[in-house]
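Pinned message: reference record for ABC transporter domain-containing protein
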Amino acid sequence: MLSVHGLSATAQDASGDDVQILRDVSLELAKGERLGIIGQSGSGKTTLIRAILGLEDPAISIQSGTIEFGGETMFTTSCDRRKELRGRALGAIFQSATRSIYPFRRIESQLLEVVKFHMPMLSKTQARRRITEILVDMGLKDIDRILRSYPHQVSGGQLQRIAIALAMLPEPNVLLADECTSALDKGTEADVVRLLDRFTSDRRSLLFVTHDLRLAGRLCHKMIVLLRGEVQDAGESASILSGNCTEYTRSLLNAMPPWAEADGTWPPAATDYVLESSNV
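Predicted structure (tokens):
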């Protein structure tokens, strides 16, 4: 469904010198598969996602490689065709919901615009019904109030769910999630992961970008670990998490807190308190 072969990219630093952002990166994402892309800040994860989406960045230069989606070569398709594919076939969720949601428009108008652009055959009544259904699926309550609201009038967790709804409304074949849980508390993160798990069924695929190895292991069948734009490990998540990996990836595993288990459990309640507050 989606394949990247030998992708290399550079950017210019403050002194004007070329810096390698991606070096010979390849991946394959099959129908119904979930692939995790793991790496520290600056490892090239977001550059890879933007290249797949066909979002041009004047600061980034693609040196070599190909990206194919559904039999089409992304670098040779027209801008109009790439725009058509984004949203309808390739959905994107970014780290900050504010990158997907305009701050000065009511939430309903933005959701309706997405439906109108990608699903023009629906009437306004059908579009509103579709929006309500997906917001309910996202676990949101008080839908009428949310739809009337501006983005600043809902919580961060609600806004991220709305951003996911924006990406899922056109029912894309592939969902690209770029650090979409990194700014969330653990409870909301778990809810978002469950939503991604539910919506990436046999007919949808997920490319999940994160710096959290164990989170990727919970959600993804396979994973790729990047370091300064180069692939360090690639394979089945269970195998990599069990220690069949390079020293770099093993160091990431060892850096995880001992209680950050793959099932997402947190440490048990402490019995000896260093701080206690009551009747505040």
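Pinned by admin. Summary line: Residues 101-170 form one domain.
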